[in-house]
Amino acid sequence: MMHSSDAQGYNPAVPGSYSHPKVPPHQPSGQYNYSGSQNVSQFNSYQGPGQTLNRPPVAPLSGSPVQQTGPVPQVPPPALQNSAAISSAGSFPPGAGPPMLSNWQYSQSAVSHPAGTPPSHLAPGTGTGSAQPSPSLSGNTNPPGSYQYAASPGGPSLHNSFMKPGSAPPPVTQPLTPLHPPPRPPLGPPPVGGPPLIRPSTLTAGPPNTQSLLNSAANQDGDATSAASDGSAVQNSYDAIEGGGLMATPHPSPAPPNLKMNRNVGYSYPALPPGYQNTSPPGAPGMQASALQYPDGSKHFHQPPLGTNHLTASMGSLSLQQEGLRPVNLLQERNILPTTILQAPVPNLHEDIQKLNCNPELFRCTLTNIPQTQALLNKAKLPLGLLLHPFKDLSQLPVVTSSTIVRCRSCRTYINPFVSFLDQRRWKCNLCYRVNDVPEEFMYNPVTRVYGEPHKRPEVQNATIEFMAPSEYMLRPPQPPVYLFVFDVSHNAIETGYLNTVCKTLLDNLDLLPGNTRTKIGFITFDSTIHFYSLQEGLSQPQMLIVSDIEDVFIPMPENLLVNLNENKELIQDLLRTLPQMFTKSLETQSALGPALQAAFKLMSPTGGRISVFQTQLPSVGMGALKSREEPNQRATAKDIHLTPSTDFYKKLALDCSGQQVAVDLFLLSGQYSDLASLGCISRYSAGSVYYYQSYHHKHNPVQVEKLQKELKRYLTRKIGFEAVMRIRCTKGLSIHTFHGNFFVRSTDLLSLPNVNPDAGYAVQMSVEESLTDMQVVSFQSALLYTSSKGERRIRVHTMCLPVVTTLSDVYAGADVQAITGLLANMAVDRSVSATLSDARDALVNAVIDSLSAYRSSVLSIQQPGLMAPSSLRLFPLYVLALLKQKAFQTGTNARLDERIFTMCQVKNQPLVYLMLMTHPSLYRVDNLTDEGALNINDRTIPQPPILQLSVEKLSRDGAYLMDAGSVMFLWIGKNCGQSFISQVLGVPNYGSIPQNMTHLPELETAESIRTIAFVSWLREQRPFFPILYIIKDDSPLKSSFLQNMIEDRTESALSYYEFLLHIQQQVNK
Ligand SMILES: [Zn+2]
């Protein structure tokens, strides 16, 4: 072990305030070596089901102590958890336990309610005393091997498929007890309208899970899942806030079900800025920018009558566009790839509605025509789901500051462009059809400054909008931004030289970290021991404290390890300058990652925040130590590859983190196998991000250094949301049953996101639980409640509206092939982990076969030879073939295990646009770029060459081609490439003198160079990661990587596109 504090001159002064019994009175060596046991409460005690869900610091129950600021016991007694579960989830009648279904299909049960019963499906946790039979669960709870995407109940289809045929179980009628009373007495007359409509809670049942410590339904794999009654475990959870908008209430108590939708602010937080900016995201229809002042606070006016419902008025003119249905013979039509990036299909809605719809970059559905029934969906053999990019950076976003956030009393939907106004004072929810009152304040339109125009309010004019949340949306005062960096400083880590790059980048961007005057920062380093750094004000230099007891980690002088960034900037900068040199002589090869993470968690627990951990090898000592599982000789087969974690240590720790609003981002920089399948869990369940720099080395792999720098800069400076939760709602009748992404599912459908970042994507699967009879449209709404780095509580809401159709041909006409592919990829990752890779591959192929068979037998009126697909799905076989050849799912290659796992992480966590690019790269010819059709952005001319098919047939030896595969780019130079390109763009005299390892385009003063660089830079700027550009020739060792991406061509282990089509045709015609 290397203690370099002496050498580095770190001040060994005994911290005055620290009085841990184990602290030696004095250490001559100038360091504190806290070894041996100590009294700090046990860190590692995963004992109870609720433990990971417990969130002690939040407790604003009415009548109970409001906030705890300090650390609190982490493990409540299990019994308490259970009882809490029942009382607050409100899911089960007393005495009734969650029914355990016997199979692992996504079963949902519907709950219907007699007319007149109070609305009940506020999200669990809002305190209904009654019940829905649902141990909720997203599909990630299934034990490996028993996971079925498909298989109709009782039906014959047991082949691999992702579809979920089958119908929902019969509705169960449950008496409901009323909701809690709202914090203030209800206003206005009782709601008008029909009986409350209830959206049944989602069920995903499964066998009791003995392994998990989370309640009966904890997840084993896949994404997060909620424990059966987990939401319950935290009575006073964010669930209550997002779902109910009420301060969580400890015990259900009978009360009138009139939740007030007009949620007045009891008291306001000083952080809430006044003012209203009405701006819009680029390209988002219906978001006219205007600079308007939104008066803070409500205005009281007299309301004039409102016109007729603007939404239904437009409904009459739905007309079908049949282009998507045009039959295409795939075996004949070879030029099906569009020459520009494929756009999302436009939903077939009246233009007045469509222009208000959510931008497809933010919210997308696999089927833009929603099938009316599950039977129709089953027939189509296409997955129904949503793909979201909810926190995407938007250059313009309408932000509303108002004391009144108008939501449906019944289902808590935020008022949105697709509600209908029945008359001057009532609006009808587009998700549950409850009729709600228009609050007085909402009658005034701050945009037009006119009273009596609630339908013209920004909330009703923008499908994407952000609210400044009043205090009811807080369980505690908004947390400060807290950033903790955890660095591997073992010998191996120092060898890679990464610490230099990271510390330098951090130094350069210290002032750009999102935050405010409350921002805190801290550092931990570790090898076989854990080193803390005191940055206490008044110290002349940082002070290193070493804890060598990694079995029972505790935090020395916790008050000085996370310090205010602004007040201690010099000490912090000092540390960042010194750190890279501190361990250069270290011979310590061991890695105590697990204990270091435990320490980090302890340090962060009181506040929440972000942990960024940098790791360069397999953790070898202490909790979470791992053994290598990669067997090089087995790489080539799909069998026996280790896609599942080898320990649940990281997942459990992640759930602890999640409970304390801490997210962990993992940067893995390693040349050797590091078991990302296990390590990645720390980020996945805590809503973190994973970055992987394979074979990072500052000298041997310099191109990775630039990539790390660029991506780290983005990481450090991008927007961040803290203590976030997200809920996705959909119109009654539809039901969400599985979630994909990095998060933990709390209480059925509430995604817990300790951090949310603008680069994360999510997906959900849905089913049609009750027929959507008589509905012309359905809507989907995501609501993300978060604390901004400025300490504001905000809610970002996206709402999408889609038409309902009754025929199979209409379902196909509206299919969004990219969204379908993206969702299938997510499902295939789950399948690979829960079953096998070959099962997942089979299921992907079957998805194509099944849907094209159904199209052929049920939609095509004239049978013809060939392989017929509706135009909307013409790229489906190509995209699925591309998935099969993608690193996540390919066989017979040298894909290293960690690389494969990382690709799977990307599939799960990336927005659709990047997922598509890494699955089916874009190929451009670039040796003849022109300004024709070029974009003009900020005085730069960006050429827009056409996209080519991914086949060597499309390559000409006298050209140069750029392949953009998302996180990597290849510039292939043909042997006979024109001299002018080689000299004017590459800056070398001839083909022979192009260097073998060229990764940069020189900036030359030629038109060709300027065009090419403009194009490459433009491509790079549009994504949050930095693709390395490899310039390759025919004899380049990277040529095989380039050819591997030629999806349409045959490889040693995979079919060509044409062969694949023949295979599909054979199956379809069976
Ligand atoms: Zn509603």
From TrEMBL:
* Protein's cellular compartments: Cytoplasm, Cytosol; Cytoplasmic vesicle, COPII-coated vesicle membrane; Endoplasmic reticulum membrane
- The annotated regions of Pro residues compositional bias extend over 167-198
Domain (Sec23/Sec24 helical) spans 816-916
Coiled coil start-end: none
Q: Name one GO molecular function term.
A: SNARE binding
Q: Name one GO cellular component term.
A: endoplasmic reticulum exit site
Q: What residue stretches are annotated with the Zinc finger Sec23/Sec24-type domain?
A: 405-441
This protein's membrane topology, according to the annotation, is: Peripheral membrane protein
Q: Which positions fall inside the Sec23/Sec24 trunk domain? A: 478-716
Which residues lie in Low complexity bias regions?
83-94, 221-233
Read off the InterPro entries from this record.
Answer: ADF-H/Gelsolin-like_dom_sf, Beta-sandwich_Sec23_24, Gelsolin-like_dom, Gelsolin-like_dom_sf, Sec23/24_helical_dom, Sec23/24_helical_dom_sf, Sec23/24_trunk_dom, SEC23_SEC24_subfamily
Q: Name one GO biological process term.
A: intracellular protein transport
**Which of UniProt's keywords are assigned here?**
Cytoplasm, Cytoplasmic vesicle, Endoplasmic reticulum, ER-Golgi transport, Membrane, Metal-binding, Protein transport, Transport, Zinc
Q: Which domain of life is it from?
A: Eukaryota
- Which PANTHER family does this chain map to? PROTEIN TRANSPORT PROTEIN SEC24A, SEC24-RELATED PROTEIN
Name the chain's protein.
Answer: Protein transport protein Sec24A
Q: What organism does the UniProt record list as the source?
A: Anser cygnoides (Swan goose)
